[in-house]
Amino acid sequence: MVELKSGEETVYDRLPGEVPPVPRMIGWTLLRLDREAQAVHLSFEPAAEFVNPHGTVHGGFITAMLDECMGSAVVGLHEAQFLPVTVSMSTDFIRPVPVGKVFSQGRITAMLGKSAFLEACLTDAQGQTLARATGVYRLLPWPEHLRPTPA
Fold first, then answer.
1. CA pair distance 137, 83, nearest whole angstrom
2. Contact 66, 131 (CB under 8 A)
């Protein structure tokens, strides 16, 4: 497992520009890459503005977190060789997601040709599963203006 240390460079540091708006809005933070398990570990920090009438995080934001987690697995574990684009995604909402820090793991289950199959899980600080998803992603070349710089 690759534990990220303060100041350690990852492929994400080599992507041009700043973190895109959606990951920034949902509080995306890379925690570690686990190449052996083909997994990425992230945290998110949904804001109070994301709540539904029940006072918990709206399902659209939960889905966005899981989608970012699965796409991040492809980008991080394959050194940004591909730009993953969501083709289909299925989400299960298991427990209400509170405002505040939550954790996720995204895992590549298969990469076949120009497609990747992934799964992700969102948990609270105690490790309870809050939501999970599976997704199929098309693997595209990076547009020139978004292409990462070599290490």
1. 9
2. yes
Mean pLDDT (10-residue bins), the chain, 151 residues: 54 73 90 93 94 96 97 91 95 97 97 97 97 98 78 63
Contact, 43 vs 103, CB < 8 A? yes
What is the pTM (predicted TM-score) of this model? 0.90
Phi and psi at residue 132, in whole multiples of 5°?
Answer: -145, 160
